[in-house]
Amino acid sequence: MHGKTVIHRDIKPANIMLTEVDGRIVYKLIDLSISAVEREAREDVAQTLRTGTTTLQALEGTPHFMSPEQIQEGTAVTAQTDLWSLGVVMFQALGGTLPFAADETDRTKILYAIVNAQPPQLSDVIKEAGGVSDSISDFTDHALQKRLLDRFETEQ
After folding, report:
1. Which residues contact 88 (CB under 8 A, 6 or more apart)?
2. Catalytic positions, please?
3. How far apart are CA 47 and CA 56, in angstroms?
4. Residue 23's Cα: distance from chain center in Å?
């Protein structure tokens, strides 16, 4: 998707489907209803195709899985936005909890925490449960860096 400059913007467990292809389990992303290219005006699509980024006009997505740049008005949303959300999915799957305001149902508090609070390190959250390898923990922590420049880069 990113190679085609499509930014999903709503990666969460409910949008990851498991299926079998040729005897192998394959993960597929579904529900592209708020993907960047699909919902933008023609001019914005041209900008996205040219630069690989888009600027949000409205707050869309599932609060617990939104990246800081999705929340901050006028901030560029890139493929790294999806990597953030994947980091949240991994954190939840491995740690059994969400990294930001897991007990909160107040959308404003969740969004504030995502922009302003530091997530706990995955290794600290699951230390008592036997832990995970350092490489998986490091990957998840890296995906949840606030600044785009501190996250993984992606080829587009």
Report:
1. 12, 64, 65, 98, 99, 100, 144
2. 10
3. 12
4. 29
pTM: 0.81
Distances (CA, A) of 75 to 26, 39, 43, 55, 63: 33, 17, 17, 6, 17
Contacts of 95 (CB under 8 A, 6+ apart): 122, 125, 126
Q: Which long-range contacts (CB under 8 A, 24 or more apart) does 152-155 make?
A: 152/80, 152/83, 153/80, 154/2, 154/78, 154/79, 154/80, 154/83, 155/2, 155/3
pLDDT digits (tens, 9 = 90+) for 90-139: 999 998 899 997 777 888 899 999 999 999 989 888 876 567 888 888 99
The HSE-up count of residue 145 (CA atoms within 13 Å, CB side) is 12
